[in-house]
Amino acid sequence: MNLGKKVIYQIYPRSYKDTNNDGIGDLRGIASKASYIRELGVDMVWLNPFFISPQNDNGYDIADYYHIDEKFGSEEDLDNLIKVFDENGLGLMFDMVFNHTSTDHEWFQKALAGDKYYQDFYYIRDLKEDGSLPTNWESKFGGEAWAPFGDTGKYYLCLYDKTQADLNWHNPNVREELFKIVNYWIDRGIKGFRFDVLNVIGKDQILKDSNGNIVEEKALYTDTPRVHKWIRELNNNTFGKYSDIITVGEMSSTNIRNSVMYSSNDDTELSMVFSFHHLKVDYENGDKWTDTSFDFMKLKEIFNDWQVGMEEGGGWNALFWNNHDQPRANNRFGDVKNYPYQSATMLAQSIHMMRGTPYIYMGEEIGMTDPSYESIDDYRDIESKNAYKMLKEKGLSDADAFNIISKKSRDNSRTPMQWDDSANAGFSNETPWIAVNDNYKKVNVAKAREDQKSVYYYYKKLISLRKNEELISDGSYKPILEDHPSIFAYIREYGNQKLINFNNFYGKEVELSLTEILTDIKDYEYLLGNYGEVEVEEKIKLRPYESLALIKR
User: What does the alpha-carbon distance between residue 551 and residue 471 come to, in Å, rounded to a whole number?
Assistant: First the structure.
């Protein structure tokens, strides 16, 4: 399987298309849009969790890995979705949350009822002799990483929400149950798996306090050697038996060395990895909940280091700007007010011509933006509400705290898909679970498909080029202009062919001398650019948010 020719589309089911008029997207809605997704040109669709769940963390708190939450439809709806996607040449990628289960899960409930067998499925510990918690770890959602285990006096580990209890992978019975889940869905026809926060499963059996440094604390449970051992075991017992299944691991706070091992071309672990360092360049001193401009030089450094490092080690990158956990990239790294088309297309081209497998998050392909909400009550995300409370406790005003939430909330990407300019953007006939972005009359699928110069058709071109140009799918990567303050550029090479991709990340025109970069500019021709075709001359001007690819065949 050539992963370099694959493109994957991500759908947040709750927000894609509602067919039963309850304001929540469903599986029938996704099936109804199969032809739209096929026409875009992608190969596979990753669905965020739609399993039975109390929805305390938007479905990432799974109570039953085998059955569909009735909010999203029925077993028959899922069978139909698999069938319709198969007929349209599309694979389905399921989201597997194997670091933790919901506390509503049967395993946890049996443990709570006193079943010793299931108590060993989780990290359940006594308080220390001084009465303090088993460790001083902090939850990734804020607060303590432990919660009372019923009225037993013991506590269970919950690195995320209190209702998400961490699974004890040291227990072979846990691993066996997880293998059964993956194999069940493979037998149902699922061709891909995205594993949530997979690199935090490798906690020690004996848990230790951190020294209070958050980086060192994460190292106690992130990317430990046993993670590789357990992923190889998962591979050997499930998807590794098949040649046509794509896997990707979401790797929290990972590094290149470990990611090479997770995704090396010996196929013993995963197909590829998600890393998030490039989406933390607008965190002030590492703090997400701040309002600061992105560090462009750091962004370039991260992209280049990961491209070069993963290639040298034989690893494989998942390429992405957007997903369900991130604000929209065009708001963060572009100018959606003055250059909406240029921002969206430049960001797309900057990663679609890299080495790796591109992921497109729903709505990205039409230039959807963050919403213009006016109150914290408009948000639904538990992390955002916790952060708002924390910011207020730090002394920020209501307005300042809300400003930060409005720029960093995960809900920014979870607004309903904008299909047309009818009520609720064509998402639902009833009030959606979260408000539609108020720009839906200007930004929607129907309007985008009517205009050959829209963001939508630019994405189609990028996808087509990846499938038809081995230079893009299989070529090497070499960074250039590394010290330039506004241009991100690189060269791809395959055999005697070369491609150079320039991306202007700012709203000011920049002049470049091609003769200082290339010795054979006469051999290059225009391939793709978001301002249209240009002449290849000794000097070129990159306009605001311009992306320009030149090729030598």
Answer: 9
Q: Is 130 a catalytic residue?
A: no
CA dist 486 and 378 (Å) reads: 35
If you write DSSP's letter for every residue of 203-240 in order, what string do you get?
--SS-----S-HHHHHHTTSS-HHHHHHHHHHHHHTGG
Would you call 262 helix, strand, or coil by DSSP? helix
User: Of all residues in the chain, what percent carry a pLDDT higher than 90?
Assistant: 95
Residues of 361-374 as b/e, b for ≥16 C-beta within 10 angstroms?
A: bbbbbbbbbbbebe
pLDDT tens digits, residue range 485-531? 999 999 999 999 999 999 999 999 999 999 999 888 899 999 999 99
Structural element, H or E, at residue 525: strand 525-529
pLDDT score recorded for residue 186: 98
Q: CB 210: neighbour CB atoms within 10 A?
A: 17
φ/ψ (deg, to 5) at 102: -65, 150
Q: Considering the chain, what is the average pLDDT of its residues?
A: 96
Give 407-446 as a DSSP string. Answer: HH-GGGG-SPP--SSSGGGGS-SS--SSPPPTTTTTS-HH
- From the list 136, 194, 143, 192, the residue with the least C-alpha distance to 164 is 143
Question: Mean pLDDT throughout 74-84?
Answer: 97
Of the candidates 43, 196, 217, 370, the residue annotated as catalytic is: 196
Catalytic residue from among 18, 77, 250, 282? 250
**196 catalytic, yes or no?**
yes
Instruction: Band the pLDDT of 87: cuts 50, 70, 90.
Output: very high
Tokens matching residue 172: 């072979």
Q: What long-range pairs does 284-287 form, CB within 8 A, spacing at least 24?
A: 286/214
| pLDDT more than 70, % of the chain | 100
CA distance 440 to 422: 9
Is the CB of residue 300 less than 8 Å from the CB of residue 306?
no
Q: Is 80 left (phi over 0), alpha (psi -120 to 50) or beta?
A: alpha
Letter string b/e over residues 12-29, b meaning 16 or more CB atoms within 10 A of that residue's CB: bbbbbbbbbeebbbbbbb
SS3 459: helix
Name the region of 503 (left: φ>0; alpha: ψ -120 to 50; beta: rest). Answer: beta
Rounded to an integer, the average pLDDT of 234-241 is 97
Q: Could you tell me the maximum CA-CA distance found in the chain, to the nearest angstrom? A: 77
Q: What is the 3-state secondary structure (H, E, C) of 477-520?
A: EEEECCCCCCEEEEEEEECCEEEEEEEECCCCCEEEEHHHCCCC
DSSP 337: T
CA distance 80 to 497: 44
Interhelix angle 172-187/225-237, rounded to 10 degrees, is: 40
